[in-house]
Fold this protein.
Amino acid sequence: MDVRFVPKIANTKKEKQSLNLAKDLRPMMYGFGDDADPHSDSVALVESMTTSYLESFLRDCLDASTMAGSAKVRMEDVMFVLARKDKKKAARVEELLFMNEELKRARKAFEVDDGGGNDDY
C-alpha cells in the first residue's frame, strides 16, 4: 500500500493566519521602498498574496513529484516547476545551489588542511 504525505492546506481564515508572516514582511517591505511602518492592510495583502503563491507553487511541486512517481517533493520537482513557470528564477536558484556546493567544498577543504590540531609554536 502506497501511503503518501499530503500537506494540509489551510482552508479557513484562522488556519491561514496561523502562518503569520507579518513580522517578517514589514522590514522586507521597508527594504523594498515602503514606509518604515507600513499600513497593516498593506501587510495583510502582501501576506495573503505570498501565502497564496506558496500554496499554489507547492501544490504544483507535489503534482510534479506525483507525476514522476515519487512519494516526496525533491529538488528536481521544484526546479521543474520553476523552469516551467519562470526561467529567470530557475536560473538564479541553480546559480545559488552551485555556489552553495562550492562553499561546502571550500569549507571542507579548509577543515582538512587545518587538521584541527593545536597551533602552538
